[in-house]
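Give me the fold.
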Amino acid sequence: MTDHERLLAMLAERSARRGHFTLASGRESTLYIDARQTTMSPDGLALVGPLGLAALETSGWRVDAVGGLTLGADPISYAVAYASALAGRPLRAFTVRKEAKAHGTGKLVEGPFRAGDRVAVIEDTITTGGSALRAVEAVRAAGGVVAGVLALVDREEGGREAIEAAGLPVVALARAADVVRLLPD
């Protein structure tokens, strides 16, 4: 089994559920993908980091840093940054707050992000693209240049298209349809 196949199996076993759910986007769905069940586990981190790094290298985006809207993007960003250090091509990780702190520096973008950085915005699950686009806006406001969006799962519900319509390429490690195929009936 390839690493990609292992990731799909892990997402199906740990993260995907059938039922009736309201998603972060407000949409109703019969499929819920809680990517954190995969991305916050040791073996999930060990898969996601190298797969994410490989996807970034294949994309040709040549980024300095990776990060996205907390909380879903955080473990993926950290796993990719760690894999990049092991590969000898270090990328810095950052996180984008949902709102600026009222104390301290009051920043939306936290971590070793620098103005002028070329970044990949990370997203755990793309549905409408709204979370990724919020992160893009925050990164740009902080002086970053967004090369594209790297997602763990594309739910294939128009989010990719919304991000692409905003002028950004999207790379997804998995599609919801591939995960659903592995779910028991």
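The radius of gyration is 16 Å.
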